[in-house]
Amino acid sequence: MVTINRVADLEELISSAALKFIDVVAQAQSLNGGVHGDGIARVVLTGGGAGIGMLKELRRLDQAARDQGEDFPALRIDWERIHIFFGDERNVPVSDPDSNEGQAREALLDHVDIPNRHIHGFDLGAISMSSAADAYEEELREYAPQGFDLHLLGMGGEGHINSLFPHTDAVREQEEFVVAVHDSPKPPSERLTLTLPAIAKAKHVWLLVAGEEKAEAAAHVAAGSPAEDWPAAGAHGAEETILFLAENAAGKLPK
């Protein structure tokens, strides 16, 4: 079941998601906390305006807390006890503006005390796409065998999440956690993506959605439409699924 958290606008969405992110990570980092019971948080990031905006807000909160010598809210995150993964990646260098990892590093990761070895990017460019998919699946098995504490998702107007687009082999995948996409309808065409089975390994799944062009897809998420047609409707966390929804994307929800 999807819980809908309606907010006024993108700014409020970013703020509320950032504060809740801190709570979830802090809980995972508590004694014997997290899905692995080791006090280490495992989080999957997303790109897009809302996802990157939330990372920028986390950076702002972290810096403000450091400047003021306060421990609320951002310093409740121990950046040395978090592992970061990515929901998908385009087949471009990290330095490319289209890189999700590159955007996340610029927004947050390169500005906090997270060990670089805890940032699990896709190894693209040096090996084939299929080999890179296999390598990332092995990375997940090694560092997140029990899944994730939180998987963040953006959503496109046609309902795509990660690089799972409607009516594609990737969204139909039922076994593999990572697959290569060679014909993405959004450029660049080559990508790696986590699948719906991988998303289902997350304790918390959040969709961050703003924009009038996403109202129809948001309504299908709320209605639980088939994932084949509306991939975001197939994203479910093991314990919690939240649709953070700005009012401009809520226009087609049932009254």
TrEMBL record:
Top-rank taxon: Bacteria
NCBIfam families named among the record's database cross-references: pgl
Keywords: Hydrolase
Keyword check for Hydrolase: yes
UniProt catalytic activity: 6-phospho-D-glucono-1,5-lactone + H2O = 6-phospho-D-gluconate + H(+)
Any Pfam family matching the protein: Glucosamine_iso
Family per record: Belongs to the glucosamine/galactosamine-6-phosphate isomerase family. 6-phosphogluconolactonase subfamily.
Main enzyme class: hydrolase
InterPro entries, per the entry: 6-phosphogluconolactonase_DevB (IPR005900), 6PGL (IPR039104), Glc/Gal-6P_isomerase (IPR006148), NagB/RpiA_transferase-like (IPR037171)
A biological process term (GO) from this entry: carbohydrate metabolic process
Keyword Hydrolase set for record: yes
Domain Glucosamine/galactosamine-6-phosphate isomerase per the UniProt entry, residue ranges: 9-241
Pathway: Carbohydrate degradation; pentose phosphate pathway; D-ribulose 5-phosphate from D-glucose 6-phosphate (oxidative stage): step 2/3
High-level lineage: Bacteria, Bacillati, Actinomycetota, Actinomycetes, Mycobacteriales
Enzyme Commission code(s) on record: 3.1.1.31
GO molecular function: 6-phosphogluconolactonase activity
Protein name listed in UniProt: 6-phosphogluconolactonase
Biological role: Hydrolysis of 6-phosphogluconolactone to 6-phosphogluconate.
